[in-house]
Amino acid sequence: MKTRCYCSTSPAWKYYGERGIHVCDEWRRDFVAFRDWSFTHGYADTLELDRIDANGNYEPANCRWATRFEQMSNTRKRCDAKTSRFKGVSWCSNARQWRVQIQHHNRHFHIGLFHDETEAARAYDEAASRVYGEFAHLNFERSLSF
User: Fold this and answer.
1) Pairwise CA distance, residues 14 & 112, whole Å
2) Looking only at Cα atoms, what is the longest distance across the chain?
């Protein structure tokens, strides 16, 4: 956690420290504080530390313990996905519509085709909320309708 945020020679630096992600002062200075928080918030050897907001810092209000599968469900849009500004949405040139897909257990599932990119992103969010629950990384703020 500290290495990826503060060591510019770390391979993960460009995804964390370079993007401005930091570790809160309490955890950065005091391992015991981090350890105590961990034990009172569900730590287990089989879990990984997950940031609830993938663009937020490592701090008590933004972290939780999650399985690898849950954590991978909470990823931001890939920077190499150039066809849409939304996660889970891509342009289908054959149909000339926006295609929505979601990945679950290493399989891709087709959600549908949409004329409007934003409508497609909302369809992705609805599917992601059903599949991943609180670990879903959505394109828009959570809504009570999901």
Assistant:
1) 34
2) 56
Sign, CA dihedral 61-62-65-70, equals positive
Contact status, residue 100 vs residue 111, Cβ threshold 8 Å: yes
Can you tell me the distance from the alpha carbon of 49 to that of 12, in angstroms, rounded to the nearest whole number?
Answer: 15
Q: 17 near 7, Cβ under 8 Å?
A: yes
pLDDT digits (tens, 9 = 90+) for 11-21: 999 989 999 99
Nearest to 16 by CA among 44, 46, 57: 57
Among 131, 138, 29, smallest CA distance to 75 is for: 138
Radius of gyration (C-alpha) of the chain in whole angstroms? 17
Q: Which residue has the tokens 């500290």?
A: 2
What does pTM read for this prediction?
0.57
